[in-house]
Specification:
Layout (H helix, E strand, L loop, with lengths): L30 H5 L14 H13 L2 H7 L5 E2 L5 E4 L11 E4 L4 E4 L5 E2 L1 H9 L3 H11 L5 H16 L3 H9 L5 H6 L3 E3 L4 H7 L4 H7 L13 E8 L2 E9 L6 E3 L10 H4 L4 E5 L2 H9 L5 E3 L7 H7 L6 E5 L7 H15 L4 E3 L8 H6 L4 H10 L1 E2 L1
Parallel strand pairs: 10-11, 10-12, 12-13
Antiparallel strand pairs: 1-2, 2-3, 3-4, 4-5, 6-7, 7-8, 8-9, 13-14
Helix pairs in contact: 4-5
This protein binds zinc ion.
């Protein structure tokens, strides 16, 4: 999968809608126009050796001219039956579209200003750069990006959405989360659904990358819809997103990628006593109540990497506070984990909350930090 990133915004006057549709009489593209590159554009010193020509060809294949222009908000109309498109010329001021792109030949020609060529020529003309700098600019612009960069942009976007959708704020309130500083610190956002793909595509991220990251599904729809979003980070990089449904959909959802280590281990790992909970809403309410030594494995099954994190400091003890389920599932998971921790040399205690509660519901029902501390103190070692 090829990934690209956009750097800078040199194309700010490529405004959305700058291509025009609806003009009845358009000058037809000429054969001469499409053969234009046969006239030599690249009069750079020394001429091209074949390896360089090959590299340039690969560069142009990586990003077809039409896709490149559209990514920078050029709005074309189809002109004729073949793969020809027309829109306003980005290279000069005009009100009638005379800028043609042939997608098959990967070339452009403007009947207004008489200029044409391939992707590199376009960048040369548009940014007024010499040939070599145009190639360097394109290579930088199309450089592969790590998925974490995309996930970070997604987190920023979802954080903005949190303040625009009252249903999200109502849900957090209902789950007892009201401290804006904690919400901000945890990077909590909201995915309303239906707007992430457009946002990321507008920032130059190709469809394949969004699909590959799991942010959109095969039908092109946002993976997260009506979900509170928590970013999962490791060593300062976002590695996954957790989405808690606020509606009738299945409550928990992660992107199809590793969930990383224990939540917020960069800060929690300094504590010698650690509270381990099942869910991020449990963690959020405990942090809000002052229990900053709380971490979370997203569920009750710890990976061996997460187990190793708990064991990374001698003498650490772990308080397991899983849900008190009707069917005893949480209690059984808690017992099994305590045994696993014990065999790894980590002393563990199983904390009992009042019947039917998880840490979040316990606080929402009115418990105080002192009540929770009592529960911790009553917890027995295995
Ligand atoms: Zn032009």
């Amino acid at each position: 999968m090829i990934r690209y990133r956009c750097v800078g915004t040199p194309y700010s006057h490529f405004l959305p809608g700058s291509g025009l549709c609806g003009f009845k009489k358009l000058p037809p593209p000429t054969i001469l126009a499409w053969e234009y590159p046969l006239l030599c554009f690249y009069a750079h010193p020394g001429g091209e050796n074949s390896a360089m020509a090959h590299d340039l060809e690969l560069l142009k294949q990586r990003m077809p001219l039409l896709e490149y222009l559209q990514r920078h908000n050029w709005r074309p109309c189809r002109a004729g039956r073949r793969q020809e498109f027309v829109g306003l010329c980005p290279l000069h001021q005009e009100t009638r579209p005379s800028f043609y792109v042939n997608a098959h030949k990967n070339l452009f020609y403007c009947h207004g200003c008489g200029r044409g060529g391939d992707l590199i020529r376009f960048v040369q003309l548009f940014l007024a750069l010499p040939f070599r700098q145009s190639v360097a600019h394109l290579e930088q612009e199309l450089m592969p990006v790590p998925a974490s960069h995309l996930l970070e942009q997604t987190v920023d976007f979802y954080q903005l959405q949190l303040h625009r959708h009252p249903e999200a704020a109502r849900y957090l309130e209902h789950r007892g989360l009201h401290d804006p500083a904690i919400i901000e610190e945890l990077g909590i956002g909201y995915a309303p659904g239906g707007n992430l793909r457009r946002h990321l595509a507008g920032r130059g991220h190709p469809f394949d990358l969004l699909l590959d990251t799991g942010l959109i599904n095969g039908q092109g729809r946002d993976a997260f819809c009506r979900r509170i979003i928590f970013p999962l980070c490791q060593h300062g990089q976002v590695v996954n997103l957790y989405g808690r449904s606020i509606g009738a959909a299945f409550p928990h959802r992660l992107l199809p990628r590793s969930r990383g280590g224990l939540f917020a281990w960069d800060s929690v790992g300094y504590f010698s006593i650690v509270i381990l909970v099942e869910g991020l809403l449990d963690l959020a309410i405990l942090w809000q109540s002052g229990f900053r030594n709380t971490t979370c494995a997203i569920g009750t099954q710890l990976t061996s990497a997460q187990l190793a994190q708990l064991a990374d400091q001698p003498g650490r003890s772990v308080y397991i506070v899983f849900d008190q389920d009707e069917n005893q599932a949480g209690q059984k998971a808690s017992h099994q984990l305590a045994l696993r921790l014990k065999s790894a040399g980590i002393p563990a205690r199983m904390v009992q909350l009042p019947h039917g509660h998880d840490p979040n519901s316990y606080f929402v029902a009115g418990a105080t930090a002192a009540d929770f501390t009592d529960c911790l103190e009553r917890a027995q070692p295995l």
